[in-house]
Fold these 2 entries.
Entry 1:
Amino acid sequence: MARRNRGSRGKIILVAGGAGFVGSHLCSALLGAGNRVICLDSYLTGSPANLSSLQDNPYFTVIEQDVCDEIEIDEPLDCVYNLACPASPPSYQADPIHTMMTSVTGTGNLLRLAERHRAVFLQASTSEIYGDPLEHPQQEDYWGHVNCTGPRACYDEGKRAAEALCFDSLRAGNVDVRVARIFNTYGPYMQPNDGRIVSNFIVQALRNEPLTIYGNGEQTRSFCYVSDLVEGLIRLMNRQPNPGGPVNLGNPGEFTVIELAELVLSKIATASTIVHAPLPPDDPKRRRPDIARARTLLDWQPKVPLQDGLSHTIAWFQSALAKQRTVRRP
Ligand code: NAD
Ligand code: UDP
């Protein structure tokens, strides 16, 4: 199809879930690269505050809407990123049926939108596709080990169904779809009450509260700094030709939960200790991405070591929590 003439401005890009943690960084990067960006978000777990530095940009628009409702956009879209879905276990388990519908109905709505606009589509999928994995590290051809009846299923199985919708749309020739399987990502603009490990540990340490380790803390995760992830998402969206299958995006450095707690405590002057709390059901024991496909197809690998990424994130939370205290003061 002939590209539409946009004058000197770049592409017109929809970011569903653009007011969330990753989405706000993505909107910022896309605007910085000279594109027009439309953010569509219901503010379920995102916040207008995440977009405050973008709100005066004339090339940025926000639409407050649930992706489960039919979506109409008047402008001709070149690209659609689908990041709309709560991502932390407490958030996605708060209304599990809506989480499932967000992935299934919401992704279906956005795929139809992309088809009408002949826009390239990128789905923010997840390492949860692999469940509590029996293969390590996880490669894209591993089919996973997911409990379809447990409390994580609304998220894991929703994202698996969304991938099925994506690859059926691709095979049918309806939409040029790309799927990123994102591993644990952290950084500024996570909500302090989000519930994920990095934000929990940093906020607890800054408040001199005990760090809550679930279970014995020997379970592992691999933590990717958000700027690295955003770079990978944009490369995947722009990659020609279509890579034809999912691509893992994550940092292969693997840490136990105890190691992360100790690292956070070593970086913050705090009176915090460590306490143990029950391990949530179906909590994956080990997780580390094999990123050979991303290296080959996208010439991408993470650049920010955990030590540095944590320092940036701690500094951001220090300032965000100080602002919250100022606002609350009568
Ligand atoms: P987040 O919760 O901060 O952001 C999700 C955004 O989607 C929020 O702004 C929320 O309000 C919006 N949203 C949720 N449901 C919606 C709905 N029905 N309609 C419209 N908007 C809706 O999470 P995040 O960490 O920024 O994750 C972004 C995406 O990346 C998610 O799809 C998530 O599944 C995926 N992902 C993230 C990680 C990670 O570690 N951050 C890992 C794997 C996958
Ligand atoms: N976790 C923890 N304490 C917390 C939050 C999480 O020990 O305060 C553990 C959790 O049980 C899991 C790991 O940290 O083993 C990562 O949890 P998170 O919710 O960040 O992401 P996910 O489980 O989806 O990878």
Entry 2:
Amino acid sequence: MRKINVFDTTLRDGEQSAGVNLNASEKLEIAKQLERLGVDIMEAGFPASSKGDFQSVQQIARTIKNSSVTGLARAVESDINTAWEALKDSAEPRIHVFIATSPIHMQYKLNLTPDQVVEKAVQSVKLASSKFSQVQWSAEDASRAELPFLARIIEQVIQAGATVINLPDTVGFTTPHEIGHMFSYLKEHVPSIDKVIMSTHNHNDLGMAVSNSLAAIQNGAGQVECTVNGIGERAGNAALEEIAVALNIRKDYYQAETRLTLKEIKRTSSLVSKLANMPVPGNKAVVGANAFAHESGIHQDGMLKNKETYEIITPELVGVNESSMVLGKHSGRHAFKDKLDELGFDGDKTQFQQIFEAFKDLCDKKKEVTEDDLFSLMTETMTDA
Ligand code: KIV
Ligand code: ZN
């Protein structure tokens, strides 16, 4: 099994979600939970972006012991110096420095030629590696960069001291096939690539962030960047919980594992949702309220016979107590009888049939039939008898 490092960026890219603003104590609370979850690296913020973020990164770097803590910096001397001040007290000082690499970003955003970008990247990595023991360099917008240019700049930043090379799909544009090709191409065309860890960082604009992350892992990424609940800029980042559980459930296929304590997933998701004030959609994979809820009679019947008929993830694996059978108009007799038994039903077949029919009528009138409703139906029928 290959070991994949989980780089969590909930506190940096995740906090870039529109409308999200975490204060220092909220960031620290999330950082402690990420440490319990077992992320290898957490990106605590962007120290040069504000005084508050600087203090928060510094506090997290001084507190967290079992995960490596990092902070973002542009390829600018003052950003790197500020990041050093914020992170120097951490157990293993680590920086994340980036510069844009696609033609559109270099021309319009940076107003620099490709050669000037290479020069700035090399200078920034040299400065960073004179201070930090771990230097991650990111090729922003890598998925829209030209591959020969990427190969050239990556070789040079490795020579300058980078230890991790991250290749972001900054605008969520790529596909699993293309990202696989990018990783394979760079493994073949960057002479020093074996000296570093390759990393993947994907956005979800076309809903492919998790698939792209998994494809990158299959093609050589040893680090995956993600956020809890997939929060982040625009449509968000690759969801940590989905990647972690996919790797675990499909070990046979990916042959890769993380060191995460998966049963902390639900708690982490709920904490981030509450503090970021971003509700988790009910149908969200792994952590949505409906992820382990079964409604139709056919599924409920299967579940009551053998849970593996309709559940590929056990709820306990991710810290959810148990799966649930939701009673609604699609429910069948099997699950309904089970529920009545749980409520103390001791009637005969005819009474059961009467209650079942009354329940189906009620389902056509009400969105949700509660346990209290069932109890009333049951007592009415039993008293009439
Ligand atoms: O999406 C992106 O390109 C980023 C970089 C700063 C790594 O978040
Ligand atoms: Zn990003």
